[in-house]
Design goal:
2 domains, Chemotaxis protein chec, alpha+beta
Length: 283
């Protein structure tokens, strides 16, 4: 049975959230309008020997393993488009393309995690290349389409333990307002006077011309003072992040976005992959 045929539950919500997240991330990252079309029940499975499989570890209110799978040729096309490679040479599925598509999948399942947490409680989805689902308990085959790019056949494979875990979890109850006594219900509330905004504080257009320093941060490393004093020309300081992870765009010690380093007319640049909402100041 496919996920789209399953009863309305977390199981089908998992597939639906994946479809929506794929549409949003690919449309934003690849500069085209992508849509998910359900596959027919007789859509052939993707051959494992020629597949690109992105394992998923799900923990929290539900637990188990899953995988998003597509052909290596299609994964290579996605990876090349993500890094901005517009060459006409045949796309090869190598480490660079896999890392690029893995970054896309981290963004996709970050959105899926947020969507499912809102409805079902605390759960986390981690992209893990060591995971594969050899005998899925559920299979959702679908097609990603775009007017400007070839269609991509994908499979969402859910292990039996995750399928069973998803099938029994219940949505969180919707928050409802407490009922009011009848005598209070018939009394109109007093008018509320809203404070007028202070243009010197709330009108951010007044500050639009102020220049701020933007810093790209590749990673961190704590060093003992003796190690800092021993640094010489040629020393290598290893950071705590790998070269495949996005860099952080920092303003006033706050991370506002993450992105990928690119070359623009011989200079360094950064392609924004993710923006981060500013956190409210602590009292």
């Amino acid at each position: 049975m496919s996920l789209t045929e399953a009863p309305a539950s977390t199981l089908s919500a998992f597939a639906q959230a994946t479809h929506i997240a794929l549409q949003d991330v690919l449309s934003q990252a690849l500069g085209a309008d992508w849509r998910v079309e359900p596959g027919s029940p007789d859509l052939p499975a993707i051959a494992r020997e020629s597949s690109a499989c992105f394992g998923l570890l799900v923990t929290g209110v539900v637990s188990g393993q899953a995988a998003l799978q597509l052909s290596q040729a299609n994964a290579a096309l996605l990876g090349r488009a993500f890094v901005g490679d517009t060459s006409d040479a045949p796309a090869e599925y190598g480490d660079e393309q896999r890392e690029a598509v893995e970054e896309l999948m981290r963004q996709v399942f970050g959105l899926v995690t947020t969507a499912l947490q809102a409805s079902f409680g605390q759960l986390w989805i981690e992209v893990d290349r060591a995971i594969s689902v050899a005998e899925p308990g559920q299979r959702d085959a679908f097609v990603l389409t775009s007017a400007s790019r070839p269609s991509l056949v994908c499979e969402l494979l859910v292990s039996s333990d995750l399928a069973n875990s998803l099938a029994v979890v219940e949505p969180k109850p919707a928050a409802t307002e407490p009922s009011k006594p009848a005598e209070q219900a018939s009394t109109p509330p007093p008018p509320v006077t809203l404070p007028q905004p202070n243009p010197t504080i709330d009108d951010l257009s007044l500050l639009a011309g102020v220049e701020v320093e933007v810093t790209l941060r590749f990673g961190h490393r704590w060093l003992a003072l003796r190690d800092v004093m021993n640094l010489t020309s040629g020393s290598v300081v290893e950071l705590d992040e790998s070269v495949s992870e996005p860099v952080e765009i920092v303003v006033d010690d706050r991370v506002l976005a993450r992105g990928q380093i690119v070359s623009v007319d011989g200079c360094y640049g950064v392609r924004i992959l993710e923006t981060i909402a500013p956190q409210p100041a602590r009292p």
